[in-house]
Amino acid sequence: MKASTILNISFLQVVLNLYLAEAAIAEQEPIRLLTAKDIKVGDFETFSKVLFKLANKTKSQALDPTRAYDPINVRDTWFSVANYFRRADGFTKGSWDNPNIKEYWDEQLAAFNKGLAALLIPGERVQIPADNFIIEAIWYSADKVKKKRPTLIIGNGYDAAQEDLYHIMAVHAWALGWNALTYEGPGQPTVRRSQDLGFIPDRERVVTPAVDYVLNEKSDEVDTERLALYGNSMGGYLAARAGAFELRLKAVALNGGVFSVHDSYKAQLPNDPLEIYEAGKKEEFDQAALSLLTLNSTVPTSIRWVLKHGLWAFKTKSPYEFFKKIEQYTLEGITDRIDMPVSVADAEFEGFFKGEPQRVKDALGDKATFHLFSGEAGYHTQSGAFQEMTRVIFGWLHQTLG
Ligand SMILES: *[C@@H]1O[C@H](CO)[C@@H](O)[C@H](O)[C@H]1NC(C)=O
Ligand SMILES: *[C@@H]1O[C@H](CO)[C@@H](O)[C@H](O)[C@H]1NC(C)=O
């Protein structure tokens, strides 16, 4: 598979693609994707192995001395290596002791840092102290000439890494003359590993120190009147929550809007376990939910992945506790505090947060600008159509902030 074909795919989309591939295999359709054809249907381990093989092969290309005549190509090869290691990591969370969780991540960080250092204006890794953790961030200056410019703080959600956000968003921000700061808080890939911290619902604890950082450390580069926050995927909830408490932000873009993470995920549970959950039977629910995760489960890969990843990211071994924890991830009683323009995106074929953007829009009233992405851009966070997504989001930012 050519590097460029999956370079920009976010992990949730990979899951969705795998799910579609499962459906295609089940229907005996010819599978032409060379890497995908080696993945055993529904088997997380072969997925990791196959993607690891691709990552490792690409790494040997990045290291190949005969390619050194073209440093930009080498840089982009490192970005591909990083991307493939991240994808290989995607299905590793079934067992927290899986050594690949650390090994693949170390590989992706090292490869990404090689790419980062070779950019025209190298991205700058920064660690920002917060109350009882450290935010992992990357600062991308818009230009070598220091001048106050619009600045976008960019965060992911449930699973993807800030390294993904370079390709999805930061590179587009850059092309439009914006500075960008990508960041990760507790529960997100690097912080979850290096500080052993699961997700926290009160995202202002992450965003406020990030805002402090750009305003204090980058004051000669940041136009305070054009400082905005973007939230990707479940980051749509996190960014809205932060926007309610961090008033120095001048606009917030949610892609998509997520009113309640709990409602969205609960809706994906099969009927029987759902009833047990609603009845508050913790042990019985844990048993039922964990049995959904086995290799021969008839439950779709996407749902099994959501739960396995969620247990790891929220740092609990109990599915019941996981669902209880995500109850706190709601904008109920918070939306009135949001006092800035908000862009709320929805996607025609949204699978994870179906109907949630409409709820956010309704709660925000006049403060919200709603945008429905459809057709080719109609998938979760516009996977495969990021150009379309960034054109709309930056169009709105320019219109809103001048
Ligand atoms: C990774 O690739 C290198 C060079 O191509 C090879 O020597 C090595 O065995 C591979 N590692 C694994 C674990 O497959
Ligand atoms: C899954 O099903 C296959 C075929 O029915 C069987 O051979 C295999 O042992 C099962 N694996 C598990 C983990 O139950």
TrEMBL record:
InterPro entries: AB_hydrolase_fold, FrsA_esterase
Keywords for the protein's UniProt record, in alphabetical order: Signal
Signal peptide segment: 1-26
Family annotation (SUPFAM superfamilies): alpha/beta-Hydrolases (SSF53474)
Full protein name: Uncharacterized protein
Species per Swiss-Prot/TrEMBL record: Clonostachys chloroleuca
